[in-house]
């Protein structure tokens, strides 16, 4: 038995070595996993920081980027995510500079002083902007501008229907204050038709109604109208204006206190003209609408020129279908034009 003890001792030693070696291999593998996980976190922090930088650029550019800012806020303001503030930036800076533990104390102090100087410069820049930039002036009146669209309704055809769909996706902005009565193929001409199986009146409360009836039920105090796309080839320029004025007369008869605002008819792409639906004719039509509005004391909003290219046609970057319908970038422009109009007409 004593003779075999040395063999037993060797076997035990080999077993211990094998166990210890296994722990070493697992520890090495775990270390590799930790390094990879750390790399993923750093990459994620970089992506988050880039999103915040984009948001700050939009904010700094002024009022015209409000719709895009709202979109960005919708995308980032998820439950539990917290506000996008300077504190969030500090957290990301901490993650991205994890190697800072090896930095000397005086280096950290210099970095802190530099940050304070940059913050001071940004604050001064903000004060300078408040001293005269139009965007800041609009923002000072932001609540009044937004409130201008309380009890408003936007009436129109498929072009307006596109704006309604755009607004429905941005209900955390002033667009939520608007009502809509829009339908495909709607026109000043067929708006005067009786309601029947062939009519295309906008639906309100689950059924088609003549627009002046729906406006009355909605209690709207401001009526924005954009029609004509489906009129010009049927009743011509002057005939379309006559139908427009007749329609507004019926709206005012039913809603005498309603304020009327006509919106210009927008253009079509160059080379996509159809009969009288071409841009020179549209310009003529808009000129008559503006004169009609001025004569009757109605408002007039010119969206068409804001969407036009250097040749006076609908700019290609604003078109969604290669003809006349518009994309979200175009409706961003609508928002800017409408807010400017509201700012100019605040009481």
Structure description:
There is one protein chain. The protein has 347 residues and is α/β, with parallel strands linked by helices. The chain folds into two domains: 2-96; 149-344, Rossmann fold (3-Layer(aba) Sandwich). Helix content is 56%, strand content 8%. The protein has helices spanning 5-60, 66-76, 86-96, 105-130, 134-140, 142-147, 158-168, 211-218, 232-254, 279-296, 328-344; strands at residues 152-156, 178-182, 203-204, 207-208, 222-226, 259-263, 299-301. The strands form two sheets. Strands 2-1-5-6-7 form a five-stranded parallel beta sheet, with helices on both faces. Strands 3-4 form a two-stranded antiparallel ribbon. β6, α10 and β7 (299-301) form a beta-alpha-beta unit. α9 runs parallel beside α10 (279-296). The radius of gyration is 32 Å and the shape is globular. Residues 22-133 have low confidence and may be disordered.
